[in-house]
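Database export, one record per block. Field names are fixed; values are copied verbatim from the stored entry.
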Amino acid sequence: MPDIMQSPPYDEVVLGRRSIRGYLDKPVPRELIEEILALAIRAPSSMNTQPWHFHVITGEPLDRIRRGNTDRILAGEPDSREFRRGQPFAGVHRERQVGVAKQLFGAMGIERDDKERRQDWVLRGFRQFDAPVCVIVTYDRELSESDDTPFDCGAVTTALVNAAWSRGLGCVINSQGIMQSPVVREHAGIPEDQVIMKAVALGWPDESFPANAVVSERKSVDEAARFVGFED
């Protein structure tokens, strides 16, 4: 079991964590990833179903996924992600999506009319942001009709990225890395009885990478919460 006494305080982890999109070319020990997963799987799940699976990929298999993803997207292959996307964002949700994109492009010095650099930025997502490790999160297909299951997988993924941050590692949760699901399923050896949900790029943060300094804007508690039955 990890030594909790050596870990930073919870508030420090949550408030300090950022999405990391640039990584050092430095391997991550398997033992450290196992320690992180041991913490992550303490996440709550509906009626203790624990529907999640983690496929932890590095080295040549990950390079094959990167190549397959980028080759297919550049060839115009349609999106084949398995977990439903829903309608494009609109209203305030679209505003937040555009807002963080502006923050990232500003940090990287990517101008609005610089199509080449903008495309390269998008392709970074299909390359798992060139991270040394990718964790593919899947869930049991027999639970596909359950709305609790993706909620549970979201909880465990949040626990994973926070646990990684507490150990000095960075992550970014992304969908681009699993949009070409046949590529991912083949090279990660994911069984057909599992649904591919999300990808998590993981590695040592490159502090010189400008986008890593971006802290996305967040709702205030006043905007996000209503308190009912409390005294003023």
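Remark 1: The mean pLDDT is 93.
Remark 2: Helices lie at 10-16, 30-40, 59-74, 91-108, 115-126, 148-166, 181-188, 221-224.
End of record.
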